[in-house]
Write a structure and sequence with these properties.
This protein is α+β, with helices and mostly antiparallel strands. Helices cover 32% and strands 26% of the residues. A hairpin with a 5-residue loop joins strand 6 and strand 7. The protein binds coenzyme A (COA).
Length: 193
């Protein structure tokens, strides 16, 4: 069975990281959870510096402290996904965006990888003392909200978002300790926490 781990982005991953983003453009896919990497395609070192600052940030209404990870498959050391985890929420993120943004590269979707991605993300939240994780998804993106439901997410709201998505958005809440306790099956799919 394939196993996975979260890796903090470093200089040695430049080519892999750019190939990851390129694949989204080739498939016309929305990019999420990439910590803004798609805005730094000509400045990978600048992106690493941005991530360093993201981790140290004091929370404001504009920005909050966050961490970004590559989801890596052990067998071939390939980046298959990414997650961006906000360690504190400001009012804007509480309303829209929540704690975690995630993605799986287009050629690796539909294999259950995002459930492992979210499981690892919840472990990071637990390490940072976050007891309840808030997430949201567009209703027309079932792969996203089904991932949340698979990890115990409870739908708390469904509404038409006039401001950001301009579509129906579903909000979810996950009790982190409960989710981790009730899904031991993912423990065997991860290499390190
Ligand atoms: C959303 C995304 C991360 C899902 O990744 P994935 O690896 O394909 O998801 P998984 O294979 O782990 O599947 C998660 C759940 O969604 C379901 N699912 C996967 N693809 C689906 C699809 N195309 N339609 C409906 N359900 C789907 C799976 O069956 C699973 O649910 P289950 O456990 O009830 O069976 C991926 O599609 C992606 O990167 N999309 C672009 C970025 C994005 O939209 N991010 C989320 C923003 S909130």
């Amino acid at each position: 069975m394939e196993r996975f781990f979260f890796e903090e982005p470093g200089p040695e991953r430049e080519a892999d990281a750019l190939a990851y983003i390129r694949e989204f453009y080739e498939h016309g896919s929305e990019i999420n959870g990439a910590g803004g990497l798609h805005r730094y395609l000509d400045d990978y070192a600048g992106w690493l510096e941005k991530l360093r600052q993201d981790a140290l940030r004091e929370p404001t209404e504009e920005k909050v402290p966050a961490r970004t990870y590559f989801l890596v498959r052990e067998s071939d050391n390939r980046i298959v996904g990414m997650s961006n985890i906000r360690l504190t929420l400001n009012e804007k993120l509480r309303q829209f965006g929540g704690h975690i943004g995630f993605s799986i590269r287009p050629t690796e979707r539909g294999k259950g990888y995002n459930k492992i991605n979210l499981y690892l993300g919840l472990k990071v939240c637990a390490q940072h003392g976050i007891g309840t994780v808030l997430l949201d998804a567009d209703l027309h993106n079932p792969a996203s909200w089904r991932t949340m439901e698979a990890l115990g997410g409870v739908r708390t709201r469904e509404y038409f978002d006039e401001q950001y998505s301009h579509c129906v958005v579903v909000d979810y809440s996950i009790d982190v300790d409960k989710a981790l306790a009730e899904h031991p099956e993912y423990e065997g799919r991860i290499l390190r926490s």
